[in-house]
Amino acid sequence: MSAAASARQILTQLHEVMAGRHHAQHKLDRVVEIIADSLTSEVCSIYLLREGELELFATRGLNPEAVHVTRMGVGEGLTGMIAKNIETLNLAEAKAHPDFLYRPETGEEKFHSFAGVPIVYRERAVGVLCVQHVEPRRYEDVEIEALQTTAMVLSELIAHKELVDDQDTIDLDEVPTECEVFEGLTLVKGLAAGRAVFHQPRVEIDQVVAEDIEAERQRVYRAFDKMRDQIDAMGREPEFGKGGEHVDILETYKMFAYDEGWSRRINEAIDSGLTAEAAIERVQQRTRMRMREIDDPLLADRMHDLEDLSNRLLRIVSGQLGTAATQGLRRDTILFARNLGPAELLEYDRRRLKGVVLEEGSLTAHVVIVARAMGVPVLGRVARVRSRVSQGDEVLVDADKGVVTLRPSQQLLEAFDARFTKSRERAAAYAELREVEPFTRDGTRITVMINAGLRDDVSALQLTGADGIGLFRTEFQFLVSSTLPARERQMRLYRDVLDAADGKPVIFRTVDIGGDKAVPYLDNATAERDENPAMGWRALRLSLEREGLLKAQARALLEAASGRQLSVMFPMVSEPWEFDAAKAIFEEQLDFLRERRKVLPEAIEYGCMLEVPSLAEVLDQLLPRLSFISIGTNDLTQFLFAADRANPKLAARYDWLSPSILRFLARVSANMVGSNVRIGVCGEMGGRRLEALALLGLGFTRLSITPAAVGPIKELVRKVYLPDLTSQMQRWLISPPADMRAALTEWALSNDIEIE
Question: What pTM value is reported for the model?
Answer without folding.
Answer: 0.64
